[in-house]
TrEMBL record:
<feature type="domain" description="PA">
    <location>
        <begin position="367"/>
        <end position="451"/>
    </location>
</feature>
<keyword id="KW-0720">Serine protease</keyword>
<feature type="active site" description="Charge relay system">
    <location>
        <position position="538"/>
    </location>
</feature>
<feature type="domain" description="Subtilisin-like protease fibronectin type-III">
    <location>
        <begin position="648"/>
        <end position="750"/>
    </location>
</feature>
<feature type="active site" description="Charge relay system">
    <location>
        <position position="137"/>
    </location>
</feature>
<comment type="similarity">
    <text>Belongs to the peptidase S8 family.</text>
</comment>
<dbReference type="Pfam" id="PF02225">
    <property type="entry name" value="PA"/>
</dbReference>
<keyword id="KW-0732">Signal</keyword>
<dbReference type="Pfam" id="PF05922">
    <property type="entry name" value="Inhibitor_I9"/>
</dbReference>
<dbReference type="InterPro" id="IPR041469">
    <property type="entry name" value="Subtilisin-like_FN3"/>
</dbReference>
<dbReference type="InterPro" id="IPR037045">
    <property type="entry name" value="S8pro/Inhibitor_I9_sf"/>
</dbReference>
<dbReference type="InterPro" id="IPR003137">
    <property type="entry name" value="PA_domain"/>
</dbReference>
<dbReference type="InterPro" id="IPR034197">
    <property type="entry name" value="Peptidases_S8_3"/>
</dbReference>
<keyword id="KW-0378">Hydrolase</keyword>
<feature type="domain" description="Peptidase S8/S53">
    <location>
        <begin position="130"/>
        <end position="595"/>
    </location>
</feature>
<feature type="domain" description="Inhibitor I9">
    <location>
        <begin position="34"/>
        <end position="117"/>
    </location>
</feature>
<dbReference type="Pfam" id="PF17766">
    <property type="entry name" value="fn3_6"/>
</dbReference>
Length: 765
């Protein structure tokens, strides 16, 4: 149905163009857009080299388009052979519609735009020295960055076939080494959508001028500073290698470039791929999502793929990158904070957060005003009354406009203000965002901002100052806590698959930064720093890919699904003696917030291969053509032979969508014994914690493994018994298989159709 809707949109656009032509318009004046064209495997041309394949697809296009739609002449700018089968080209709507109608074409997908999901962290990838992590992001800035320095102790990676591409602004021979082993960039789809890249602002090269890619790459596999200082001998490993694939530019990245990056990364032979990128609007279906298709191609080749969950929390159903073949990572806090205290004239104090490191305000209190009383409640640039702001601290509101917290502080500074207080949204609850402001400023919680506002309105001469505490490492408040911004489950397109999978540190993470931009990303900010502190699920994702790299080196024969299983089933949702908390509510977090917990000898693993994922797509109701986008085998998938449901996919967690208060759902799983210490015999029994209102039955009640039987099947039946109890929309529990040594934990999340809905964002002050 979704594919028919897409074809309808293409045909509608074509009809509109035809109407213009009939009225006397010229056909060669038709609008041209970029599309990804997926070609049936049997009809795809063959070529020994990528540039020859692009030529072959140009011939394919000429042969496929009749004279009535042949102009303007379409041009192929990418050919895909590994992540997908097909090409990307600039086409008119009529050309796209005609191609969509051909048996040789599986789908024609408009090029979507994506955006980045913008050290005391427990990252341990230093042993994975022969593993290459491919980072699909904004590129990399290796100049003068110790995180990417060469290491004499590292031999070249054994199986990596990639290279670094040189340009006038990226000297590959000087910047790349046995740590940074690959660097490429992809822009043709972006330029087809947004026009030529302004090279006075951005570097058309692998060089990162924004910072996001450098930060994520160094978090995943950067060399720790302490290790670099100690590297007098070869006893200290330098961690995994890095291959950077630049796809994100000023306005984001487009699907054709992202898919080409996957194609190249697979050809280069990376071991892990990570991307911290999400859609700009609605979450697309898997068959419409270039990231999901590219990731499928990578996983089929044995490459672990991790992705950020997104920064659209705390509303439920906001999680992105939810394909079951992708390891989806949420964000949580660490035990390091950067507090700043707002002190009011009446003695009240409110502790927020700030990364301001310049000249402080001092102890003396100065005038405090609310931004709404001096020209712009949101502290918009050029709208504040300089006469009323000069020398004062301004309380800035939050709102639904494209404006960063740093831009609010900048607006106050430009108006002559002495400082700023910036509130977080009400939805963010206990989280105040730390920002590298260009003037003395602090972020505060919404509830605290309300109190500060009331103080301003009830005092004739309100005054305040801000004290900057610096770096604080403490177990109070407890950590980890799920970040308020972290996107939450359930998955919109497959609620039977629990997403996100795990959580990892993603709040106030210190890592390398570009020398081409400021820590605040403001043009007016002339500061340049080798390291920066930022937050996002983008920062959480590389922590997990670093651990995945270590697992890949230790267990090179494990599938990506087995590695994901080890991460999820050995994770913990208890830290420092208590449960993981949710910063948005201050209460205990649930698996839709953090997945299976905080990310290792797992004992048992839940494995899956490409055939299992095809069964999953069949269970979703995808057509043979839609599934062929992933398998690249043409329209040969016969879903009638697949009897499994979506919930039967061999996932390391259980997500149950009840249809009524008395519904009964059964799901099936297969586990494999991978513990060499207990080989060949092991016996596991389940410990069940049933979600409230649900009876859980596990059969059989014991799993016996032997040399002859390394895998075992079991079923779980979930019986809803919600009648008569307080009705909630979700409930949670777990199944833990144990042999007395290992603890193989699977989260249970259940959802009923009726219940409370997510409240819309409350009005601000």
């Amino acid at each position: 149905m979704a594919r028919l809707a897409g074809l309808y949109c293409i045909l509608l656009a074509a009809a509109a163009v035809a109407a213009v032509a009939a009225a006397g318009g010229e056909s060669d004046a038709e609008a041209v857009s970029s599309y990804i064209v997926h070609v049936a495997h049997a009809h795809a041309p063959r070529a020994p080299r990528p540039h020859l394949l692009a030529r072959a697809y140009n011939s394919f296009l000429r042969d496929s388009l009749p004279a009535s739609v042949a102009l303007p002449e379409p041009k192929v700018f990418y050919a895909y052979a590994r992540a997908a089968t097909g090409f990307a080209a600039r086409l008119t709507a009529r050309q796209a519609a005609h191609l969509e109608s051909l048996d040789s074409v599986l789908a024609v997908v408009p090029d979507l735009t994506y955006q980045p999901h913008t050290t005391l962290t427990p990252k341990k990838s230093k042993g994975a020295t022969d593993v290459v992590i491919g980072v699909i992001d904004t590129g990399i800035y290796p100049i003068g960055r110790p995180s990417f320095a060469a290491d004499k102790c590292l031999p070249p990676p054994l199986n990596f076939r990639g290279r670094c591409v040189s340009t006038p602004s990226f000297n590959a021979s000087a910047y790349c080494n046995n740590k940074l082993v690959g660097a490429k960039f992809f822009y043709q789809g972006y330029e087809a959508r947004y026009g030529k890249i302004d090279e006075t602002v951005e570097s058309k090269s692998p060089l990162d001028t924004e910072g996001h890619g450098t930060h994520t790459a160094s978090t995943a596999a950067g060399s720790p500073l302490l290790q670099l200082r100690q590297r007098q001998s070869c006893r200290h490993g330098a961690g995994a290698r890095i291959a950077a694939y630049k796809v994100l530019w000023k306005h984001g990245g487009v699907g054709s470039d992202i898919l080409k990056a996957f194609d190249e990364a697979i050809a280069d032979g990376v071991d892990v791929i990570s991307f911290s990128i999400g859609p700009t609007g609605a979450i697309p279906e898997f068959y419409e999502d270039a990231k999901a298709i590219g990731a499928f191609g990578a996983v089929r080749e044995g490459i672990v793929v991790s992705a950020s969950a997104g920064n659209s929390g705390p509303g439920e159903g906001t999680v992105a990158n939810t394909a079951p073949w992708v390891l989806t990572v949420a964000a949580s806090t660490i035990n390091r904070r950067f507090p700043a205290t707002v002190v009011l004239g009446n003695g009240e104090t409110f502790t927020g957060a700030s990364l301001y490191a310049g000249k402080p305000l001092g102890a003396a209190k100065i005038s405090l005003v609310y931004a709404g009383d001096v020209g712009s409640a949101l502290c918009e640039a050029g709208k504040l009354n300089a006469r009323m702001v000069a020398g004062k601290i301004v309380l800035c509101d939050i709102g639904n406009i494209p404006q960063t917290l740093a831009q609010k502080g900048e607006a106050v500074k430009l108006a002559g203000g002495a400082g700023a207080i910036v509130l977080s949204s009400k939805e963010y609850g206990e989280q105040a965002m730390a920002t590298p402001h260009v003037l003395p400023a602090a972020g505060v919680k919404f509830d605290d901002a309300v109190k500060i506002y009331k103080y301003i309105k009830t005092h004739a001469y309100p005054a305040a100052t801000i004290k900057f505490i610096g770096t604080v490492v403490s177990s109070n408040p407890s950590s980890p806590r799920v970040a308020s911004f972290s996107s939450r489950g359930p998955s919109l397109h497959a609620p039977e698959i629990l997403k996100p999978d795990v959580t990892a540190p993603g709040v106030d993470i210190l890592a390398a930064w570009t020398g081409k931009g400021s820590p605040s990303s403001l043009k007016s900010d002339r500061r340049r720093v080798p390291y920066n502190i930022i937050s996002g699920t983008s920062m959480a994702c590389p922590h997990v890919r670093g651990i995945a790299a270590l697992l890949r080196q230790v267990h090179p024969d494990w599938s990506p699904a087995a590695i994901k299983s080890a991460l999820m089933t050995t994770a913990s949702d208890f830290f420092n003696g208590g449960e993981i908390k949710d910063m948005a509510t201050g209460k205990e977090a649930n698996p839709f917030d953090y997945g299976a917990g905080h990310a290792l000898n797992p004992g048992l693993v839940y494995d899956a291969d490409a055939d299992d994922y095809v069964d999953f797509l069949c269970a979703l109701g995808y057509s043979a053509k839609q599934i062929a986008l992933f398998t690249r085998l043409g329209s040969v998938t016969d879903c009638s032979k697949s009897a499994s449901s979506v919930g039967d996919h061999n996932y390391p967690a259980f997500s149950v969508a009840f249809k009524s208060d008395t519904d009964v759902v059964t799901q099936r799983r297969v586990v494999r014994n991978v513990d060499s210490n207990s080989w060949p015999r092991a016996t596991y029994v389940p410990r069940v914690t049933s979600p409230p209102g649900v009876h859980v039955t596990v059969k059989p009640s014991m799993l016996d493994f032997s040399a002859a039987k390394t895998t075992q099947k079991y079923t779980v039946t979930f019986t809803s018994q919600r009648t008569g109890i307080a009705k909630k929309k979700h409930a949670f529990g777990s199944i833990v298989w144990t042999d007395g040594v290992h603890r193989v934990a699977s989260t249970i999340a259940v959802t009923w159709p009726a219940g409370s809905t997510v409240a819309e964002m409350s009005n601000y002050i």
